[in-house]
Design brief:
55% helix; mainly alpha
Length: 341
């Protein structure tokens, strides 16, 4: 790229000197660290790659403004590079203060992140004027985490504190949870959202009439499928339409094992999307099937149970029967042998 001349060149030189006048100093201990290990934008990575920067030591003695002449390098990119250099220098200072080199970079980063989380928590609590504790109503205290739609991170957090039900969180504060390993603010937000959904009655497992169990179950299943990811939804739809794992894998260019893994995860998510309601409705379906003269659930029998509510459903009764077969293998189905592959 040609260097600009004239008035624009003078402005660029003045800009470099005014904003980034100092030369970059990289600590000796970090000069051999590859630049690819740093989290940067794609634009900054391309700029440094074109400049021949492969390790942090390649920045030693240069100025941030020297990269302003590179293609696609604007002020935001220069500011990102300056922030990166400052972060590296701050990390080296933390390591040196720890003494004897026993304080690793990873521990320094974890400690800094922990201080930021706790500082943010205390700031919010000071602003509110009180400690914000979780308040769990008695009506939802017995909901078990194994039956609720939670992430793996939240499952690990509640397991680490010995919580089995939603009521075990009653009285705990956000600060106490943030001290747990792998617990961040979005994890606390997930707990708050879970409590709100429970209070709103989304996980209410109260008994309903057996005559309405089939329609309620199919409605919840279709609403739950709409919340799945695009790939999980595609695999599950192909599965309940009669395709084997191998056929789905050939269609999407994946192995049979990978398709099976994604499908099992989607079914597990579908069971827990509405808490204990779906397992309860499945049990009611099995109980009603055992009381009827029919020995197996068929699309015609399911259509009879659903009645006029079938107008609001998107999938066919045959697809619903296959979906129920995937969710509960204890229900004997005429179409069950189609899934053997």
């Amino acid at each position: 790229m040609a260097v600009p001349h004239g008035k624009f060149e003078k402005r660029m030189v003045a800009f470099e000197f005014r904003c980034f006048p100092k030369r970059i100093e990289i600590p000796v201990a970090l000069r051999d660290q590859p630049f690819d290990t740093c989290q940067t934008s794609a634009r900054l990575a391309h700029v440094l790659r074109r400049s021949g920067v492969r390790v942090l030591g390649d920045l030693q003695g240069r100025k941030v403004g020297d990269f302003a002449w590179q293609k696609n390098c604007g002020f935001n990119t220069l500011h990102e590079l300056d922030s990166l250099v400052r972060g590296v220098q701050s990390l080296a200072e933390n390591v040196s203060r720890a003494g004897n080199g026993t304080y690793s970079r990873r521990r320094a980063c974890c400690a800094a992140a922990q201080r930021r989380r706790l500082g943010k928590a205390h700031a919010l609590h000071r602003k509110a004027g009180t400690e914000a504790n979780f308040s769990i109503p008695k009506s939802v205290c017995k909901l078990q985490f194994d039956e609720l739609p939670i992430t793996r991170r939240l499952a690990g957090v509640v397991r680490s504190i010995g919580a089995r039900t939603l009521g075990d969180l009653n009285g705990l504060s956000a600060c106490e949870l943030l001290q747990c390993k792998n617990c961040y603010w979005h994890t606390v937000a997930e707990i708050e959202q879970l409590i709100e959904r429970a209070i709103a009655g989304e996980f209410d497992a109260k008994r309903i009439e057996e005559s309405e169990a089939a329609a309620e179950l199919l409605t919840l299943l279709e609403q739950g499928m709409a919340k799945l990811s695009r790939r999980e939804n595609q695999f599950l739809l192909a599965r309940i339409r009669g395709l084997t794992f191998a056929e789905i894998g050939r269609r999407f260019g994946l192995t049979r094992a990978r398709v099976h893994q994604v499908t099992v995860k989607a079914l597990d998510t579908l069971r827990k999307t509405w808490g204990p309601r779906v397992p309860l409705l499945l049990d009611m379906m099995k109980h009603r099937l055992s009381l009827s003269n029919a020995s197996e659930l068929t699309p015609a029998l399911l259509e009879q149970w659903v009645g006029e509510s079938s107008r609001c459903l998107r999938l066919s009764r045959q697809a619903h029967v296959r979906l129920i077969a995937e969710l509960d293998a204890d229900i004997l189905l005429a179409t069950k042998r189609e899934f053997l592959c």
